[in-house]
UniProtKB/TrEMBL annotation:
Keywords: Glycosidase, Hydrolase, Signal. It catalyses: Hydrolysis of terminal non-reducing N-acetyl-D-hexosamine residues in N-acetyl-beta-D-hexosaminides. Residues 1-22 form the signal peptide. PANTHER family: BETA-HEXOSAMINIDASE (PTHR22600), BETA-N-ACETYLHEXOSAMINIDASE (PTHR22600:SF57). This is beta-N-acetylhexosaminidase. It is an enzyme of class 3 (hydrolase). Gene3D superfamilies: Chitobiase/beta-hexosaminidase domain 2-like (3.30.379.10), Glycosidases (3.20.20.80). Its EC number is 3.2.1.52. Residues 387-734 form the Glycoside hydrolase family 20 catalytic domain. InterPro entries: Beta_hexosaminidase_sua/sub, DUF5001, GH, Glyco_hydro_20_cat, Hex-like_dom2, HEX_bac_N. Belongs to the glycosyl hydrolase 20 family. Residues 155-233 form the Ig-like domain.
Length: 768
């Protein structure tokens, strides 16, 4: 790091007396809510405690440290250790700053776990002298939201709104108001001074809505592309009195591609008729009529007719619009009638999901609700999905869940327009699918003698419950679930993980392993060295036997074969594997794994199926026709897309729902790092590194739920929701139709729906 950078960071607190520190006391880190303001010495990593003491005496509160012991020493003084990884990110933005000597470093970070992560999540820079903010757009918006306290009040008989904005930061924000729903702003431009309060005034004939949306340009804030930052503020209007119904609420998730609000509302009553003009709507229609009949006590009449109609009716008709594709739809709602248009069954089904979300939240109740009015606000909607694959995964290898819960899981997916259920059926810790040709797989492989109950490490031994655990799904149960999913336009992608994560199978058939065993079904989490023996020809008849029965159970075109986390330890010392490497003239064990995957793919293709694997199938060369799930970040997806393979983005940093979603100190035991709802929602599955043509190979996005620490269905629900809901919007709604603030508002109504439906969701983002 250059001396220039050292100079940059050392000038901050000399210039700004606001943040001066008492050098005799432990330094506290000045915070902007979810951000941390650092005065840093980043010239080079410190080598000893003396260097830390010297930086401390200079009044610095951030320092470049690579050593864990030194980092702890600095932390005890109230200093922040900036990692080498974070430093590499700093340099790329520093290069774009015109006046680096006038720059203050501001890091965005996850504050909910009570301490800075080992790698700060992201960052932006603030030039206090010319009021310019640099950094990623999502963090700039978060910085603004975290810095401003907005309060509203109504005056002049509810015809004038006063918006008091307190800027708690040392950064001025110059905003230009571009739109504010039905309100007329008295000021078009205003500066929100640092550490001060500014009042805005808006007029209307009568302010009656519970909320208004203010659109503004932040004139002095630019993202890394140097574009003016467009920002949305939420203003509270008049709250409705208890017992009344709010009008024209449009809380659809995922956000439609086009939604035009209308005047008035359509009311379902005992006179409402449903006109069926397209047979494609017949099957999806019951998902509307069943809820109206059972929940709302409105048994609406359905009739087939091509005549013109009048009065209170809902008509389902063919769209004949190629732009809608197979899953798109149009809805036109007026006080007199509702028109629903689509090309295919799936389009009508997704239209009905939007109609249900426009009805009062009570429509999702599992019991009869005695409510006077069931109405839908007037609107015109045109909607199509961004991606063909909109997936949610569930691991039943670590913990097993009843058929009733699997159906509920699928129901929740369908409500939010997800269409791929990735069912992870085999694991080291349990074989969960009945294979009739090999019944011992479930007799032996589905049972483990006990389960670990703590997080073990090299220094912390595992603690076990001493209780046998097991179970599996019969083929009849699987057929029932597959049919249930099909009715909801969800395709199930089964996963039989190989050649790694096969310990349950090896415990059943030890001759398929490199050492011959004995093996036992896994009792701890993590990766095991014992995998299928790639040099043993007997593994292939076994794999084919299993897959043949999988093919008959799951009619979808894809089968997931895993391919992840397969250690090469046993292969390196196995005579059969080494002989196979020599026989095939392979370079190494990675190419041996590629050989296994390619051979399995040929069998799949021969039987009319396609292969999906985790991104490790790239190692040693990807199978010719394989699709790839990129889970270890996005690099694997980029590589596969550039080579023309279909890619589903599922990076663990954004969409692994087994990761913590809030404070590690107060949350139930979970995997990995904190992956907050906002962090997940901000993910864009299309990497910037791809051209438009290459991006066409990104066919979808998926969230994964690994269940090491989820013993019950309620725990799965808590970890999956609301984050799975955010992923649903990522998969359906294009980036230009996504907005965090707007999503958070719509989510509040979604919480009400889930309450009536009986979902045990996390409520960290629910307004109290």
């Amino acid at each position: 790091m250059s001396k220039k950078l050292l100079c940059i960071m050392c000038c901050l607190f000399i210039t700004l007396s606001t943040f001066s520190q008492n050098k005799e006391e432990s330094l506290s880190t000045p915070e902007l809510f979810d951000f941390v303001l650092l005065k840093c010495d980043l010239s080079s990593p410190v080598k000893d405690k003396d260097a830390i003491d010297g930086a401390f005496k200079k009044g610095l509160n951030g320092i470049f440290i690579n050593d864990k012991e030194l980092a702890n020493y600095a932390a005890n003084k109230g200093m922040v250790a900036v990692s080498k990884y974070t430093m590499s990110k700093c340099q790329s933005i520093l290069d774009n700053i015109k006046e680096p000597t006038k720059t203050t470093l501001v890091f965005a970070r996850e504050r909910s776990d009570g301490y800075l992560r080992n790698a700060l999540l992201d960052h932006c820079f603030v030039e206090l002298f010319n009021d310019t903010i640099f950094g990623e757009e999502r963090w700039l918006k978060k910085l603004i939201n975290s810095s401003l306290d907005i309060r509203t009040r109504l005056i002049n008989n509810n015809t004038r709104m006063v918006v008091d904005i307190t800027n708690k930061s040392s950064i001025p924000f110059h905003i230009q108001i571009t739109q504010c729903d039905q309100l007329k702003p008295e000021q078009k431009e205003v500066t929100l001074s640092p550490m001060g309060q500014t009042s805005l005034f808006f007029n209307s004939d009568y302010i009656k809505s519970p909320q208004y949306t203010l659109h503004a340009n932040i004139k002095n804030a630019f993202n890394t592309e140097k574009k003016v930052l467009k920002h949305v503020f939420r203003l509270h209007g008049m709250d409705y009195m208890v017992g009344t119904e709010s009008q024209n609420t449009y809380n659809i998730i995922p956000a439609p591609r086009f939604l035009e609000k209308g005047q008035g509302k359509f009311v379902f009553n005992k006179e409402t008729r449903i006109i069926l003009k397209d047979k494609n709507a017949e099957a999806p229609l019951r998902f509307l009529t069943d809820r109206l009949t059972r929940t709302a006590q409105l048994p609406v009449k359905v009739q087939n007719s091509t005549q013109k109609h009048s009065g209170n009716y809902v008509i389902f008709d063919r769209a004949n619009d190629s732009a809608l594709g197979n899953e798109g739809y149009k809805i036109n709602i007026s006080p007199e009638y509702i028109q629903v248009l689509a090309n295919k069954e799936a389009g009508f089904f997704y239209a009905i999901q939007s109609l249900l979300q426009l009805l009062p939240a009570e429509i999702y109740s599992n019991t009869t609700v005695y409510k006077d009015s069931w109405s839908i606000p007037a609107a015109n909607i045109t909607d199509t999905p961004q991606f063909e694959h909109r997936g949610l995964h569930l691991d039943v290898g670590r913990h097993l869940y009843p058929v009733s819960f699997i159906k509920k899981y699928i129901d929740l997916m369908s409500m939010q327009k997800m269409n791929r259920f990735h069912w992870h059926l085999t694991e080291d810790q349990g074989w969960r699918i009945e294979i009739k040709k090999h019944p011992k797989l479930t007799e032996i492989g589905s049972m483990r003698k006990e389960t670990i109950i703590n997080r073990y490490s090299a220094t912390t031994p595992g603690i076990y419950d001493g209780t046998p655990y097991g179970g599996f799904y019969t083929q009849e149960e699987i057929k029932e679930i597959v049919a249930y999913a099909k009715e909801r336009y969800i395709t199930i992608i089964p996963e039989v993980d190989l050649p790694g994560h096969m310990l349950a199978a090896l415990a059943t058939y030890p001759e398929l392993g490199c050492t011959g065993g004995p093996y036992e079904v896994g009792t701890r989490w993590g990766i095991y060295d014992d995998v299928l023996c790639a040099g043993n020809e007997n593994i292939y008849p076994f794999i084919e036997d299993v897959l043949q029965e999988v093919f008959k159970l799951f009619p979808g075109e894809y089968v997931h074969i895993g391919g992840d986390e397969c250690p090469k330890t046993r292969w390196k010392s196995c005579p059969k594997c080494q002989s196979k490497i020599k026989e095939l003239k392979l370079k190494d064990e990675h190419e041996l794994q590629s050989y296994v995957i390619r051979r399995v793919e040929k069998f799949l293709n021969k039987n009319g199926k396609k292969l999906i694997g985790w991104d490790e199938i790239l190692e040693g060369g990807i199978a010719p026709n394989a699709a790839l799930m990129s889970w270890r970040g996005i690099a694997g997806g980029i590589t596969a897309a550039k080579s023309g393979h279909p890619v589903i983005m599922t990076p663990n940093t954004y969409v692994y729902l087994d990761h913590y979603q809030a404070s590690m100190e107060t949350s139930p035991l979970a995997n990995g790092r904190i992956c907050s709802l906002e962090w997940t929602y901000g993910y864009n599955p299309i990497p910037k590194e791809l051209t438009k043509e290459e991006a066409g190979h990104i066919i979808g996005v998926q969230a994964n739920v690994w269940t090491e620490y989820m013993k019950t269905p309620e725990q799965v629900e808590y970890m999956a929701y609301p984050r799975a809901n955010a992923v649903a919007e990522i998969g359906w709604s294009s980036p230009e139709h996504k907005n965090w603030e707007d999503y958070l508002d719509r989510l509040q109504y979604q919480f009400k729906r889930w309450q009536f439906y009986g979902l045990n969701c996390a409520t960290h983002y629910k307004n109290k």
